[in-house]
Specification:
GO cellular component, one term: nucleoid
GO biological process, one term: DNA replication
CATH architecture: Beta Barrel
Number of helices: 2
CATH superfamily: Nucleic acid-binding proteins
Shape: globular
Largest sheet: 5 strands, mixed, barrel
Strand order of the largest sheet: 1-3-4-6-5
GO molecular function, one term: single-stranded DNA binding
Radius of gyration: 19 Å
Helix content: 10-25%
InterPro entries: NA-bd_OB-fold, Primosome_PriB/ssb, ssDNA-bd
Protein name: Single-stranded DNA-binding protein
Structural class: mainly beta
Strand content: 35-45%
Order of helices and strands: EEEHEHEEE
């Protein structure tokens, strides 16, 4: 079984690219804190030792577009995927790589009050649903959840929507 789940923060803004065949791809790195006590973390920081691991990730298709459009450096993300290793030649030497290929992801930060409309999702233009849902490369929503958000987190995004009475539904 090759399955990994990570929660971390983006180390830089993701950059969307397209393959010659038109598939969207984004490579990004997330900083994942190591699990340690406060005392151990303070000791490690005092000795200039790492307290986080930096994990390279790759997402494809709609997932790549969502990450590139709605996440910036420092934002929290939950990813689920698989480990993939590879290698390439650089200056006559073989360089080995290890990446997480993202199958599903979830945005873990709530929308900031100061975000402009350009940074916010437009629910009417095929974005696949609310931003804080899990997305997959197969364009379907996942049942995996990395965090829970209350409905109040989305109150600003629900302008123009109104509650439906169950008696109004014909079935």
């Amino acid at each position: 079984m090759n399955n990994v789940c990570l929660i971390g923060r983006l180390t830089r803004d993701p950059e969307l690219r397209y393959t010659p065949s038109g598939a969207a791809v984004v490579r990004f790195t997330i900083a994942v804190d190591r699990r340690m006590s406060k005392e151990r973390k303070m000791e490690a920081e005092a000795k200039n030792q790492p307290t986080a691991d930096f994990i390279s990730c790759t997402a494809w298709n709609k997932t790549a577009e969502l990450i590139a459009n709605y996440l910036q450096k420092g934002r929290r993300i939950g990813v689920q995927g698989r480990i993939q290793t590879g290698s390439y030649e650089k200056d006559g030497r073989t360089v080995y790589t290890t990446d997480v290929i993202v199958d599903t992801m979830e945005f873990l930060d709530a929308m900031q009050q100061g975000q402009s409309q350009m940074q916010r999702p437009n629910y009417g233009q095929n974005q696949g649903g609310p931003v804080n849902s899990a997305y997959s490369n197969e364009f379907n929503q996942s049942s995996n959840s990395f965090g829970s958000n209350s409905d109040s987190d989305f109150s600003d995004d629900m302008d123009g929507f109104f509650p439906i009475d169950n008696e109004d539904i014909p079935f």
